[in-house]
Amino acid sequence: xxxxxxxxxxxxxxxxxxxxxxxxxxxxxxxxxxxxxxxxxxxxxxxxxxxxxxxxxxxxxxxxxxxxxxxxxxxxxxxxxxxxxxxxxxxxxxxxxxxxxxxxxxxxxxxxxxxxxxxxxxxxxxxxxxxxxxxxxxxxxxxxxxxxxxxxxxxxxxxxxxxxxxxxxxxxxxxxxxxxxxxxxxxxxxxxxxxxxxxxxxxxxxxxxxxxxxxxxxxxxxxxxxxxxxxxxxxxxxxxxxxxxxxxxxxxxxxxxxxxxxxxxxxxxxxxxxxxx
Length: 277
Ligand code: NDP
What we know:
Helix content is 47%, strand content 16%. By secondary structure, the chain is α/β, with parallel strands linked by helices.
């Protein structure tokens, strides 16, 4: 029951796949659960890693937008491992710049996956965290850029170290309603659905870290948001500057922070360095 276990979401391709590969290559001493919403694509990804001799990888289905799916993964982890040592919330979506869906629809759909999906997985799995666990929420440098484009009032709310999860959820909901009405910019929001969802992921990480500090101070758990960089995947396209393997470096670094490391915690990290929020 005490075997170590790591979970990576959205890992059938892109950065998530490379994170699983990177954890294996970094010598992660436990099982790594590669999750994907599509079972066939997930199993194929596991097969590819096994063909590279990376044998401590298993598949479990997880659609982050389906709370039942998170619940099933929680039960699987409880039954087979009795806890969780590493969680990497990587799954995410972005509409292409040329997408024709109305902005309000893009905002609703992107928020559902990137913010609410990450929150739902966290609600199901964070209670399983064992002492010295590591949690990495894959956000983006776009979250910082979008924060800087918010009105001073919104910036102050998103930078407030005392912001609650409830307040953050309310703000993410307000953005979607404003995007649907078309007055989001008049209300001080940036004109980026993706960027706003990633503000949500970064601020959620700050809140989750603060809660862990309050409730489990002695357990040495570290939770951070990160940016993988601009990475050549289906999301960012072939002109991006980093390979998926390079994009996985910071998430893997945060997941493998050694036992006893006091920091980083509750930070936004990219290129392995803490960024100012
Ligand atoms: P990809 O589009 O290549 O991969 C996204 C992954 O997320 C896929 O496995 C996809 O599954 C999965 N996914 C999407 N929705 C769900 C869902 N509801 N449930 C489970 N899995 C889901 O993107 P990247 O690898 O580039 O992105 C990974 C993360 O990195 C994202 O959070 C992204 O926002 C972030 N990021 C990426 C950057 C880049 O330059 N690429 C820059 C900054 C951040 P499926 O194959 O089924 O669609």
